[in-house]
Amino acid sequence: MDDLKQLIREVPDFPKAGINFYDITTLLKHPEGFRRTIDALVAQFEGDKVDTVVGIEARGFIFAPAMAYRLGTGFVPARKPGKLPSQCASVSYDLEYGQDALQIHSDAVGAGHRVLIADDLLATGGTAAAVVKLVEQLGGEVVGLT
């Protein structure tokens, strides 16, 4: 993993002073690094039955479809309100300074579907917890978060 970490650019003081931003675009443009990242993300789930990979807007959309492809499953986007064209399940969650919400199509996850949730980072865990609630609200079972 250390060699993959070397492919991630660290940008000091972005978006504001005192914060180090880890820019994954340098990893994504590296074919072998990107392939190895996807391989590592799905390795622990390859023997499990996974029906769907849910990707959290927006950078989860980068990893989740590639993971779904590797696992031979479908991909479902979790989006901000108003972005999906059909009937949606929705959940609100707390941010450090306010609230936000996420939605997925109501027919995207069925009863008993085994779901893997993917995002690009985990900060407070509020976004991931919200998507877990969405999946469970629709009758799905979360098998993992990456």
Can you describe this structure?
It is built from 5 helices and 8 strands. The protein has 146 residues and is of the alpha/beta class. The strands form 3 sheets. A 4-stranded parallel beta sheet has the order 4-3-7-8, sandwiched between helices. The chain has a two-stranded antiparallel sheet with strand order 1-2. Strand 5 and strand 6 form a beta hairpin. The longest helix is centred in the first third of the chain and has 13 residues. The model has no long low-confidence stretch (mean pLDDT 93).
Write the layout of secondary structure elements.
Layout lengths: L1 H4 L3 E4 L7 E4 L1 H4 L2 H13 L8 E5 L3 H12 L2 E5 L9 E8 L2 E8 L8 E5 L7 H12 L3 E5 L1
Parallel strand pairs: 3-4, 3-7, 7-8
Antiparallel strand pairs: 1-2, 5-6
Helix pairs in contact: 3-4
